Amino acid sequence: MSLGEFDLIARYFDRPVRRSPLGIGDDCALLAPSPGMQLAVSTDMLVEGRHFLSTVAPDRLGHKALAVNLSDLAACGARPLAFTLALSLPRAEAPFLAGLARGLFALADRHDIELVGGDTTSGPLNLCITVFGEVPAGGALLRSGARPGDELWVSHPLHDDEPGWLGDARLALEVFRGTPGLHVPGEAFERLRLAMECPQPRVALGQALRGLATSTIDISDGLMGDLSHVLKRSGAVHGEAGRPLGARLEADWLPRSPLMRAQDDGRQLECLLAGGDDYELLFTAAPERHEAVLAAGRHSATGVRRIGHLTTGGGLEVVGHDGQRLATPWASFDHFRA
């Protein structure tokens, strides 16, 4: 049986809400943030063939569509409130929609965020989600607060057998591409595939870093590329004339999975620094807040690792265990140059 537009909304996406006086079904959703709070809003789109493979399971696709948006709220230090979903479908197929909704709402329930509206249409498979969160007025984490001397940190899973380590999503993509010389056993590949298809947004850590981190960004286009955004934005605010903000990154300090450690050095470095699709938090904090950052990681049940510090020399320097600068010939991911 073919489903109509409003039938599929009612069957798969209509749920009771608490934060919106209306829920879905009206022309607009209504949200009321708590007194003294600001709304944090972000939008991300997932396009088949660009952001996900056609072979991805529907529940994982639903998870990732929301996860990449929640990661933006995490980078802002915001508490999730609600989201909207714009969905383009080539066909309205019940098994696909049931799986998509299952993965979407499982993650939504885990982070206490509600679907309050959206749109559906016929067309190429495309999911566009807008998330709304709240953060204390003046308390949002930004990209523009880093200063010279700040320590540079990145989040990571707590245990070796957990999926989602830095660079693992890129390693999975290389397996899918059939990169010569890359061999990953089946069970190990499933962990890599989970990293690519089911990223874990660090929402609790983002909130724990409010008032502690001087700048924050989530890693979506590769660590080096996203760090460059922080250096540019923060340098415009805090950089001294003629002395732009830079960073020194210690390659040996980068957290990595056992699967990544088994790869050759060149592949490791490329995946770790330029892989993208990690959705871990990259952030800076003053050196005197070192122990407080570790406590924030423990409080949010998230691993955190110091990987370098900011400098006044400009640019990004990646050094090995001997202190020698390493070649990093990779560009940040760009949708119109990839």
Automatic annotation (TrEMBL):
Q: For this UniProt record, give its keywords in alphabetical order, as a comma-separated list.
A: ATP-binding, Kinase, Magnesium, Metal-binding, Nucleotide-binding, Thiamine biosynthesis, Transferase
| Gene Ontology terms describing biological process | thiamine biosynthetic process; thiamine diphosphate biosynthetic process
Residue numbers binding Mg(2+) 3? D27, D72, D218
Ranges where the PurM-like N-terminal domain occurs? 25-135
Which Gene3D superfamilies has this protein been placed in? Answer: PurM-like C-terminal domain, PurM-like, N-terminal domain
**What positions does the entry give for Mg(2+) 2 binding?**
D44, D72
Q: Which residues bind Mg(2+) 5?
A: D221
Q: Catalysed reaction per UniProt? A: thiamine phosphate + ATP = thiamine diphosphate + ADP
Q: Name the residues that bind ATP.
A: G118, D119, R143, S220
Name of the top EC class for this enzyme: transferase
Q: Where does Mg(2+) 1 bind?
A: T43, D44, D119
Q: Which GO terms describe its molecular function?
A: ATP binding; magnesium ion binding; thiamine-phosphate kinase activity
Query: What SUPFAM superfamilies does the annotation carry?
Result: PurM C-terminal domain-like, PurM N-terminal domain-like
Question: Could you say which residues bind Mg(2+) 4 here?
Answer: D27, S42, D72
Q: What CDD domains does this protein map onto?
A: ThiL
Q: What else is on record for this protein?
A: Reaction mechanism of ThiL seems to utilize a direct, inline transfer of the gamma-phosphate of ATP to TMP rather than a phosphorylated enzyme intermediate.
Homology family: Belongs to the thiamine-monophosphate kinase family.
Q: What is this protein called?
A: Thiamine-monophosphate kinase
Q: Which organism is it from?
A: Sphaerotilus hippei
